[in-house]
Amino acid sequence: MSGDIGPSVTLPAALQALTSNPRLKLLLVGKTKIIQKLLKKANSEQISRIEIIHAEHIVLNNIKPLSAIRQSKETSMRIAIDLVKNGYAKACVSSGNTAVLIGLSKLMLKLINGIKRPALMTIIPNIKKKQTILLDLGANINCTSEMLIQFAIMGSVVAEEIINIIKPKVALLNIGKEENKGLDNIQKAAAILKKITSINYIGYAEGDDLLIGKTDVLVCDGFIGNVLLKTMEGVIRVIFSFFKSTDKTTNNNYFIQLIKKILIKKITKHFFNLNPDQYNGAIILGLKNIVIKSHGSANEKAFKSAIDYTIRIIQKQIPEKITDKLNILSLRSIK
Amino acid sequence: MSGDIGPSVTLPAALQALTSNPRLKLLLVGKTKIIQKLLKKANSEQISRIEIIHAEHIVLNNIKPLSAIRQSKETSMRIAIDLVKNGYAKACVSSGNTAVLIGLSKLMLKLINGIKRPALMTIIPNIKKKQTILLDLGANINCTSEMLIQFAIMGSVVAEEIINIIKPKVALLNIGKEENKGLDNIQKAAAILKKITSINYIGYAEGDDLLIGKTDVLVCDGFIGNVLLKTMEGVIRVIFSFFKSTDKTTNNNYFIQLIKKILIKKITKHFFNLNPDQYNGAIILGLKNIVIKSHGSANEKAFKSAIDYTIRIIQKQIPEKITDKLNILSLRSIK
């Protein structure tokens, strides 16, 4: 129940999620008093599917990750991850500090056998009205070729299971299309991915390929992924604010203003559904368990999306499917 | 006279540049016959300021940089750089293969004393109706902290001279605002930049800070810079194509379509002037001489912009100003 805004957003979102998912049960981790106060709006059926787990503290947003992890005892984030660790919860959704969430998850939960490092992954809509899996978004700022290959495999599994693509296309982010372009780790990963027949590796993609849907899975290290995502979000934010601002040069005729408003609404709505409310939720991929990061500034609708997304990840048994894929690959390589 | 399209674009652009810059003289390097044929449209005054330098070959676009450099003898690119090297030309403008242009420039021209590696730099318009200097865009895919510091110094000089900013703000691109965030080379560069009093270092900036004009100079390694620029251009291209495409859901009423057209034109025109025609031209910064890279797919207007930009770089004596700045800094550090 942390995040930039806290329970006043996450709790109403939780109630909405309970309504639209009749089999969902939620453990709400935070200050009991605050949660109880906000639960007054809930009906008895909703309350029957809620359990409050008291947490005295929250992880602060402006704290250094290592200190935060050291001082994490009794924070809602740590208690929530602990509930997952003990098998009491199937997944943890948090709007809290990303670095701390990744750090605590790595520390407390186990990695899938064979996976070296977890990666932060999200799903980006593209202009083909399809979606692209993007990872890593910042869990690892330095990646070996082995890590990039593992990210490619994990991304491929998610594309198959969550966006229902048979033989999803997988690309490595680079600064050119030619084989000899870019960093050594990328070139090495490319050479190996080409040989893995069960991965549909299509070669390198560049920054401008993301939104045009050239690939179903785009793999890069966490530094690049973070820059890519923030740049994209920044450009889109600037454009939306440009639409919404009053354009003094436009004729102030009422009818023209009305049409302008309608057009802006249309564009904002249809703009490849790049609405953060709809694609909120990044998974920490590579863990045996499910931990989902919601935008810190997520509103009610966006946080509800993150819960819905988490349910899909649970239903599709993503960690198990990744384990299966890795087992098949390692059996093949033994032969 | 190379590039994706060749003399049919670059030559008319050259003629336009001659008209708007009465003191400009141009050396056109390429196949004499082709140039002479295209020069039929030129008037005698323009022709009096043109000299044709014959080049039998061009650098091919799909060639590996090292092979291209080895086989560059008698290519227009090599001859043009040679003219700069021999002092016969003040600058070289090329639409040719970027990697080869940087490689050949490094090989044939000298670096400013104290500069370890040249960087590719461009100017990006921002929503404050100002401009941001962005470097490196791909000349160096791995950068030491020393290189990043030198890029910051060079970028700062360009911001002062070309976009007329006193004490330009300089930021390092990173994936967070806190000092302990990101890669080691960036943290080391930050620690040193903070101590250089003649550089107005403001800290880290992120991908979404570029277009909002948070900083006047944004420094990163060439891999990141390339991803950042291509991502930004990709998002903008997708948005523009979205505007231009027919929206089937829109009412086909003539009046609404007309207003839509006007609106699209306005947005396209005013959209922070992010029109590649206007900001075409990246300089290979750090050389004692001036070499400018134009977009390979630049149209007439865009290539003319690159020539105009080159003239400003010559007039402002950018390499000399960088030399001066480095001399002052090294004198101070000796004290």
From TrEMBL, chains A, B:
InterPro entries: FA_synthesis, Phospholipid_synth_PlsX-like
Catalytic activity: a fatty acyl-[ACP] + phosphate = an acyl phosphate + holo-[ACP]
Intracellular or extracellular location(s): Cytoplasm
Short name of one Pfam family: FA_synthesis
Cleavable signal peptide: none
Pathway(s) served: Lipid metabolism; phospholipid metabolism
SUPFAM superfamilies for the chain: Isocitrate/Isopropylmalate dehydrogenase-like
Its job: Catalyzes the reversible formation of acyl-phosphate (acyl-PO(4)) from acyl-[acyl-carrier-protein] (acyl-ACP). This enzyme utilizes acyl-ACP as fatty acyl donor, but not acyl-CoA.
Subunit record text: Homodimer. Probably interacts with PlsY.
Protein name: Phosphate acyltransferase
Lineage of origin: Bacteria, Pseudomonadati, Pseudomonadota, Gammaproteobacteria, Enterobacterales
